Amino acid sequence: MTDITIDRFPDTKTGESYLDEGHSLASWLTTTDHKRIAILYALSITAFFFIGGAAIGLVRLELLEPNGLFLTDEEYNRLFTMHGIIMVWFFLVPSIPTTFGNFLLPMMIGAKDVAFPRLNLMSWYLFVIGAIFTIVMIVAGGVDTGWTFYTPLSTLYANGNVIAAAVGVFVTGFSSIATGINFIATTHMLRAPGMTWTRLPLFVWSIYAVSVVMILATPVLAMSLLLVVVERWFGVPIFNPNNGGDPLLFQHLFWFYSHPAVYIMILPAMGVISEVFACFARRKVFGYTAMIYSLMGIAVVGFMVWGHHMFVAGQSPYANLVFSFLSFVVAVPSAIKVFNWVATLYGGQIVFKAPMLYAMGFLGLFTVGGLTGLFLASVPIDIHVTDTYFVIAHFHFIMVGGSVSAFFAALHFWWPKITGRLYPDYWARFGAITMFLGFNATFLPQFVMGYEGMPRRYHVYPEQFQVYHVISTAGTVLLAVAYILPLLYLGWSLFYGNRSNRNPWHAAGLEWETTSPPPKDNFERPPVVTGGPYAYGEDSEPQAHTA
Amino acid sequence: MSDAHSLLHEPWPSLERQREGATFGLWLFLATEILFFSGLFLGYTLYRNIYPDAFKIAARETEVVFGTVNTAILMTSSLTMAVASRSATRGFRKMTLLCLALTITLGCAFLLCKGIEYHDDIDNRLVPGPDFKLQPPETQIFWAFYWVMTGIHAIHVTVGIGIVTTVTMLIARRRIPLATTAVEAMALYWHFVDIIWIFLLPLLYLMGRS
Amino acid sequence: MNPFMFVSDVSRQAVDVDRLFYLLTGISILVVGLVAGLVIFFGIRYRQGSSAPRRTLPRIFKNEIEIGWVSATAFLFFFIFWWAAATQLQALNAPPKTLDIHVVAKQWMWHAQQPNGIREINEIHAPINTPVRLVMTSQDVIHSMFLPALRIKQDVLPGRYTYLWFTAQKAGTYHLLCAEFCGTEHSRMTGRIVLMTQPDYARWTETGAPTQGLAAQGEKLFRSLGCSGCHGPNASVHAPDLNRLYGHPVHLSDGRVVTADEAYLRDSILQPRHDIVAGFNPLMPSFRGVVSEEDLVSLIAYLKSLSTKNVLNQQGERQ
Questions:
Q1: Distance of CA C243 to the CA centre of its chain
Q2: Would you say A237 and A231 are in contact if contact means Cβ atoms under 8 Å apart?
Q3: Contact B137 A243 (CB under 8 A)
C-alpha cells in the first residue's frame, strides 16, 4: 500500500515532451520555454546551494573549538559572508519562484507560457551575470562585510571585494525584478477561460504575492547597493560619517528591502505547503479565502516592519514601539496559515508520502520559527538577543526549516511531472526524516546559546558555548547527508526510475492533466476551467484504491 | 512576412491582449523604477533636512542655465515622442520616423549639454573628494547626490536613446511593422525619464536661489 | 567569574526581561505542543483507510472557527506586545542623575573613561545600586555594546552619541562583547564589566586615579585648543557663555529651543554652524578632524563640570 502507484501503461504519447524539443546545449541556452528556463534556474541554484553549504560547513567545523581549528579571522569572516550572500540572493530568493514558479505558474493557470518568454530568458542570463560577478568575487578572495553590507564598514573600512559582491547582487536584483514583472503580467493576462481569481491554486496566489514584493522591494536594494559601490569606488560621501553622513540611512534602505525579502523567501513556501497538504490529506485547503487574505496581508504589512531589525541601532524608542506593534500584526496572518494547514488534515485520508513528510517538517519548523519571531518583535527581548545566535536560529528556522523544507517538498511532489520519472519513496522519506532531525540538532542549541549571550559572527568564543557548538556541528553533518541524499536517488531516478503517468499522486490541479513531462505548449488542448481548486471531495478517489 | 503574423508572439491568444500585456508589463517596470529612484530621493530629503544650510550653499553652485536648457530640450523631446507614438498607431509612417529621429536628436543634445555642464563642474572642483571647493563638509553630500542622481538619469537617457534608435532603424528598414507595441512602450519609458528630470530640476538647480 | 546565565538577577531590567522571555517560552511550548499534538492526532485518526468517520463541517461553522482563531491569536499577540512595550517604556529613560562613563569604540577595542579620568581598555568598572550611564561613540565603524548579564545592548555609531544605562544590583564580573560585526577581529573585541559595591568602587577610583580628572584634562585642552580665547571670561569676541550650559535649555537663532546634552555639545564643537545660539554670529570654526573622540570626551566632561548642578563634578576635580 505504501508504494507509489505506477501506471504500467503510460499514456499514449500525443506529442513530444518539452525535454525532447532539442538536445543540444544551444537549444537549452536559447530556449524561451518557461519549463526549460525553470530547469536552467534549478541547475544554477543547486550549484550555489552546495557552494554556500560548503562555506558554512567549514565555518561549523571551525567552531568546534573556542579558538578555532584551521581558519584565520579574515578567512572565517569571508566564509560566513559568502554563505550569507550566496544563500540569500543566489538560492533562497530565486529558489521556489524561479524554478517551480516558472515551471508551474503557466501550467496551473492553463497558459502556454509566461507573458514575456524572452524577458524570462533574459532574467536567467542576468542571474548568471550576477553569479559570475559573485564567483569572481569569491575566487579573488571574498568579501568580509557580512551579507548586510553595513556602512561605513563596507564603504570605508572593509578590505574585501565589496564592489564585485555588491554588483553581483545588484545585477541579480534585476533578474528578480524581471521575473516578478513576468509573473504578475502572466497571472493577470493569461489565465485560461474560466480560471477566475478565486479558482487559482494557492501556489499561484503565493507566487503572485511574492512577485509584488519582489518588484517593489528589490529596486530599493539595488539603489542602496549602488550607493555603496559609488561611495567605495569614487570616494563620494553618501554614508561617510566624517562628512556628516548618516550611518543608519543605509540600514533603513537595506532593511526596507531585506525584511520583505524574508517574505520573498517564505511566501512561495506557503503556497507549496498548501498544495501538498491538500493532495496528501485528500482535502480542500481549509479556509481558502482566509489563506489568500493572509498571503496578501503578509505581503503588504511586511513592508512596514523593517525597523524591527534596528531596535538597538539608535533609532527613536517610539519608532521601536511602532515597528514592534506592526511586527506582531504581521505575525497574525502567519499563525492563521498554520492553523488552517492543521485544520486541512481534519477528516482527511492522510497518506505519508515523501512530499507530505517534508511538508509536515515545514509545519513544525515554521511554527517554531514564527513563534521565536514574537520574541524578536518584543523590544526588551530583542535588545538582548539581537545579533546573537538566537537570531541566527530564528531566521534559519524560517528560511531553512521553512523555505528549504518546502523546496524539497515541492521537488518531491512535482518531480514526476518535471522529469516524467518516479523516485524511490523509501529513500525520500528517509531523507525527509533525516533533514528534520539534523535541522533541529543544528539549530535548537543555537537558541539556547543565543539567549545565554553568544554573539553571531564570532570566530573565537568563550568556552562556555563549546558544548552547544559541538552539538550544532554534529547536526550539520546529518543535515549535509539529508541534502546530498536526494542528489543521489533523484539522479538515479532520472535514468532508472519508473516512468510516471500524468498524475501519480491523483492530485487536483491543471498541471496534472497534461502528460509527464508536459509537451512544449503544456496542454494538448487549451484547458477550460469549470471549478475551484482542490477538488478532493468525498467522491474523489483516495490514492491507494487505484493501485 | 505578414504584419499580423509577425506581431503575435507565442503565449498570447490575440493581438489586442498582447498589446495590453506589454503596456501592463511596462507600467510594472515603471513602478520598480519609481522605487529605484525613491531611495535616492529619500536620502536627499533626509540630508537636506539635517543640513539645510550646507545644502543651500552647495546648491548655489549648480549651473541653472544648463538645467533650464536641458529641461526645455527634454520637454520638447517628450512632445516629439508623444507625436511619434500617436502617429504610429494611426499608421503615419513618415511622421513617426521623423518624430523618432527628432527625439533621438534631442536626447543626444541633452547628453551633450549635460556633458559640458559636467566638464564645468569638474573644472570648478565640485567633485566630492580631497580638493572639493566648498565648506562645510556636508556640502559634499549634496554634490554626491547631484552626481549620482544626474548620472543615473543620464544613463536612463542613454538607454532610452539606444532603444529608440534600434526601433527606429528596424521600422525604417521594415523589419518590424509600424504598429508594433514597441513604440508605445518606448514612449512610456521616455516620458518617465522626463518626469524624473522634472523632479531633479527643483531639487538640484532651483534650491537655494530664491 | 560567572558571565553567562539563563536567569539573571544582576539588574531589575534583567529580571524583567527574563520574566517576559520565559512567559513567551511557555506560550510557545504550549502552541507548538498544540500544533504538533493536533497533527499527530489527525495523522493517526485520519490516516488513509482508517475507520474514523469523516464529517464535513457546515460552512457557517467553518467561518466561526476562522474568526475564532484570528481573534484569539490577535488578542494573544497584542497582550504580549502590551507587556513587552510596558517593560521597554519602564527602562526607557535614565534617572536624572547618573554616573556617566564615556566609551569610545574603535577597531577592535573598547576604550572607557571614568568620570575621574581613569582610562580603561576592554574593561569597565561600575558601582552597583547607582544609575550608571554609558555615553558611547565610535571612531570608525558601527560597533555594539552588549552586556549579556544585564540583558542590554546598544549600537555604537560613528559621528554621534548613543546611550546605555543600567542600575546593577549584584556585584560581579561579567562579559562585555561587541555584537555588531565590525571587521576582522570582531570576535576579539571583548572585555568585561566589573560591577562593585559602592565602597569598593570608591576605593578603586582612589587607587587608580590619575593625577588629573577627566574634567581637568578637558580644561587643559580647552586652553590649548584656543577655546578659552573666545569663550573665556576676558574674551574680546562675542561668544556664548559656557557656564551653567550643560543640561539647560538653549535658544537658537532659528527659534528652536534645545537642551544642551552631550550630543548638542559635540555637534557644537564639530559643526558649529549647525545650531547657532540666538543673538550670536556664526564665527566659530569647526573642530572636526582637529579633536579626537577622546579629546571630545574630556572637553565635554569639562563643560559639564561648569554646570554646577551636575552631580558629576563631585567626582571631577574642579576646584
A1: 27
A2: yes
A3: yes
Residue where the block lists cell 511596462: B26
Of residues C15 and C91, which shows the higher confidence score? C15
pLDDT at B16: 84
Whole-model pTM?
0.89
Closest CA to A254 of A146, A385, A400, A180: A146
- For residue C313, is pLDDT > 50? no
CA distance B209 to chain A (A): 23
Each residue's pLDDT tens digit, A109-144: 999 999 999 999 999 999 999 999 999 999 998 899
CB C274 within 8 A of CB A244: no
C-alpha distances out from residue C251 to A433, C257, C276, C280, Å: 68, 5, 9, 11
Q: How many CB pairs under 8 A join A and B?
A: 118
Mean pLDDT score of chain C: 84
Distance from CA of A541 to the nearest CA of C (A): 11
Q: HSE-up of A33 (CA within 13 Å, CB side)?
A: 19
User: Of the candidates A345, A347, A458, which has its C-beta nearest C55's C-beta?
Assistant: A347
Question: In one letter, which amino acid is C126?
Answer: A
* Amino acid letter, A107: M
Burial call C100-120: b when 16+ CB within 10 Å, e when fewer: bbbbbbbbbbbbbbbbbbbeb
CA distances from A420 to A3, A410, A472, A494, A543 (A): 17, 15, 38, 8, 19
Mapped onto helix, strand or coil, the DSSP state of residue A416 is helix
Q: What is the DSSP string of chain B?
A: --HHHHH--TT-S-HHHHHHHHHHHHHHHHHHHHHHHHHHHHHHHHHHHH-HHHHHHHHTTS-HHHHHHHHHHHHHHHHHHHHHHHHHHHT-HHHHHHHHHHHHHHHHHHHHHHHHHHHHHHHTT-SSSTT-S-SSTTHHHHHHHHHHHHHHHHHHHHHHHHHHHHHHHHHHTTSS-TT-HHHHHHHHHHHHHHHHHHHHIIIIIITT--
pLDDT beyond 50 at A364: yes
Residue A424 CA to residue A460 CA, distance in Å, equals 43
| A211-220: average pLDDT | 94
Nearest to A271 by CA among A285, A254, A250, A251: A285
The 10s digit of each residue's pLDDT in B99-131 is 999 999 999 999 999 999 999 999 988 888 888
Report the distance separating Cα A405 and Cα A433, nearest Å. Answer: 11
Of B36, B25, B172, B35, which Cα lies nearest the Cα of A118? B25
Contacts of C286 in chain B (CB under 8 A): 136-137
Angle subtended by helix axes A34-62 and A466-496, to nearest 10: 150
Q: What does pLDDT average to over chain B?
A: 89
Q: Give the distance from residue B56's alpha carbon to the nearest chain C alpha carbon, in angstroms.
A: 13
Q: Does B137 touch chain C (CB under 8 A)?
A: yes
- The C-alpha atoms of residue A49 and residue C252 are separated, in whole angstroms, by 58
Of C271, C286, C288, C290, which to mutate for an interface test with B (greatest number of B Cβ within 10 Å)? C271
Interface test with B, best of C253, C274, C284 (most B CBs within 10 A): C274
The pLDDT value recorded for residue C108 is 87
pLDDT value for A332: 93
Q: Count of CB atoms within 10 A of residue A40's CB?
A: 20
Give bridge partners of residue C164 from the DSSP assignment.
Answer: C134
The verdict on a CB contact (< 8 Å) between B35 and A219 is: yes
* pLDDT the model gives residue A11: 47
Using omega within 30 degrees of 0 as the cis cutoff, is the peptide bond preceding B52 cis? Answer: no
Question: Which chains lie within 8 Å of chain B at 3 or more CB pairs, if any?
Answer: A, C
Q: Quick one: C63 exposed, middle or buried, by C-beta within 10 A (0-12, 13-18, 19+)?
A: middle
One-letter amino acid for residue A540 of the chain? S
Half-sphere exposure at residue A207, Cβ-oriented, CA atoms within 13 angstroms: 32
Would an 8 Å CB–CB cutoff place A235 in contact with chain B? Answer: yes
